[in-house]
Amino acid sequence: MQAAPDALLRIENLSRAFSSRRGLSSLKLLAVDRANLTLPADQHEIVTIAGESGSGKTTLARMILGLVEPSAGRLLFKGRDVGRIEGRKQRGWFRRQVQPVFQDPFATFNPLRRIESYLYETVGNYGVAPRRAADEPIERALGAVGLSLREVKGRYPSELSGGQLQRISIARALITDPSLLIADEPVSMLDASLRMSIVNLFRELKARQSVVYITHDLATAYYASDRVAIMLRGWIVELGPVQKVLGEPLHPYTQLLKTSVLEPDPRQKSSDRVSLAASDDTTFLRVGCRFADRCPRVMDICRGVEPADIDVDGRMVKCHLYTDGMAAEQATAPALASIPT
Ligand code: SF4
């Protein structure tokens, strides 16, 4: 008998190359570079992948969904190598188990189609139930997001709010009873007043499945997540429990990300502030640390040697500051409690 897998999802040295045009030539760069991340099989978690645009977080999410093929490394779901899942039956199993929730609820639905048609279509496409029994899984999924079939039946997208549409979008993902939801910026198109209700919904859904939550919004990440991975130009640079990584960040990039969501200090000279705007693609090719040009704590070694992944204080940090076990307290930033939501 085959042993039960110890991980729901295991990402091992996963990389994805892309081409970037430089005049007449093109460069091969790694949008995701040797990423490692494991979600346990024996408990549900919300794991946030956060970072600026161009950090690789969406590419990583699309690889987990099987929408983008890795260039190197392995992705195991329930012990099965996703790259080797073949045949209609096996692929159907994986697609039912790992479901996406997309960013824009307004773009998800055709304004000329009734909402329930998407739900019945999902039941049919995934073979969840025969047409005559389709109401039951749809009611179950809508119930999980605080809605009912009676409330949505016969209605068009324009008759529903953005918050309701995103709930229906999540319900559609739940119809197959997945083990893992991949939610890519699921609240970024919603008003601030609706964001927390959707974030709270993910916390409730954790009772039944794990969630990978992709965002650049550290406030909702802090509120929703169990663990957080911070990405920078293809690398995971800090990974661990959210209270540690966002409460007391160790990597200089995480510290700056966190500071960027706090009120700017009016006493700080603009020349002292470090830009968080994504730098150009050449940083992917840089020898040494990819944050060296923007890092306020850069050292000589940073410009020549790639930092290793180092275990510090119950989290992983990819930074030379910690190579020799430098005391974590020397590098911490202020607590996140004052971040507005
Ligand atoms: Fe800054 Fe060096 Fe650490 Fe990179 S390795 S984040 S440049 S201190």
Could you walk me through the main structural features you see in this protein, from its secondary elements to its overall organization?
The protein has helices spanning 57-64, 88-97, 105-108, 115-125, 135-144, 149-152, 162-174, 192-205, 218-224, 242-245, 252-261; strands at residues 7-22, 25-40, 46-50, 72-77, 80-81, 98-101, 180-184, 210-215, 227-232, 235-241, 309-312, 315-318. Helices cover 28% and strands 24% of the residues. Residues 263-276 and 327-341 have low confidence and may be disordered. The chain has 2 domains: 7-247, P-loop containing nucleotide triphosphate hydrolases (Rossmann fold); 249-341, no CATH class. Helix 5 (135-144) packs across helix 7 (162-174) and helix 7 (162-174) packs parallel to helix 8. With 341 residues, it is of the alpha/beta class. The chain is globular, with a radius of gyration of 21 Å. The strands form 2 sheets. Strands 6-7-8-3-9-10-12-11 form an 8-stranded mixed sheet, sandwiched between helices. The chain has 11 helices and 12 strands. Iron/sulfur cluster binds next to helix 11. The site of iron/sulfur cluster (SF4) has 14 residues, from helix 11.
Short précis:
With 341 residues, the protein is an alpha/beta fold. 28% of the residues lie in helices and 24% in strands.
Overall shape: globular
How many helices? 11
Radius of gyration: 21 Å
Mean pLDDT comes to 86
Low-confidence stretches: 263-276, 327-341
Strand count:
12
Task: Walk me through the topology.
Layout: E1 7-22, E2 25-40, E3 46-50, H1 57-64, E4 72-77, E5 80-81, H2 88-97, E6 98-101, H3 105-108, H4 115-125, H5 135-144, H6 149-152, H7 162-174, E7 180-184, H8 192-205, E8 210-215, H9 218-224, E9 227-232, E10 235-241, H10 242-245, H11 252-261, E11 309-312, E12 315-318
Parallel strand pairs: 3-8, 3-9, 6-7, 7-8
Antiparallel strand pairs: 1-2, 1-4, 4-5, 9-10, 10-12, 11-12
Helix pairs in contact: 5-7, 7-8
The chain binds iron/sulfur cluster.
